[in-house]
Amino acid sequence: MADISRSEVSTLIQEEYGNDLLSAAATTSAALQLFRTVDMGTRTRNLPVLATLPEAEFVGESATESGGVKPTSQVVWANKQLVAEEIAVIIPVHENVVDDATEDILEQIARQGGAAIGRKLDGAVFFGTDKPAAWTSNDLLAAAVAASQTVTIGAVEDGDDLGGSIYQAAELVDKAGFDPSALAAPRGLRFRLPNIRNVDGTPIWAPGADGTLDNVAGLTAAYVPGRVWDRDEAEAFIFDRDMVVLGVRQDVTVKFLDQATVGGINLAERDMVALRFKARFAYVLGNIATGEGDAQVPVAAVLPAGS
Predict the structure, then answer these.
(1) How far is CA 222 from CA 78, 109, 237, in A?
(2) pTM for this structure?
(3) Across the chain, what does the average pLDDT equal?
């Protein structure tokens, strides 16, 4: 029987572990869980974003007066551009580790690779960490600060007023003309929410069931890994989830390497193999026109006490 070629091995690895990659990236990344995604056939894609809103008027029945004429209004569209940028990581492993492992070590590596990509995406979108220059929209923290749509947690008798601050931030998004529909926060927030009650005594937090996301103050909630979230900068973001778009040029893919030199390691000489993971994403924040005016921002941030 003919030997299996390296390209065939790569294909087999992709087919077997591709779902693990995608699952790990999606469950790790709050951005992938919450934001709208669009497929990109090329590296760049223009999105039509509403720049002005049409205005309607009451019309009378007069055949001669101006009030009897139906008004015309122009809808102007301003393009926003999605530009796909690559996120990648290579994880080397010794062949003996693969051979001797009692569990599927490649599956574990695939999940770690997908999770690493998800964390990197979240850091760029929420805090601007290593955000590509081609992503011209502000990250969510910068956008909220620039629009003065921030709420600093204030002290109350029994602690900090986290619940009240979340509601106030949601109101800022609403006042900007958007629908405050989602919340992103560090995972640790889940342990601070259960004892917070609304004025009627009902809990502010409802955990998700059967694969659904949590609900916090009426907002769909997803959580960002602690190593990504900067608690000194923000406690939570509240936003209109339809107004943030992630472009997907290429889903997370994996390539099997056994002859390359990686980080100064000659894989063949060291009896090692490596898995290369990569994905290509774009990001744009839809600061579009609303009934409240031009270029409103659909995000608000809850800032830590003392900031």
Answers:
(1) 30, 24, 10
(2) 0.81
(3) 81
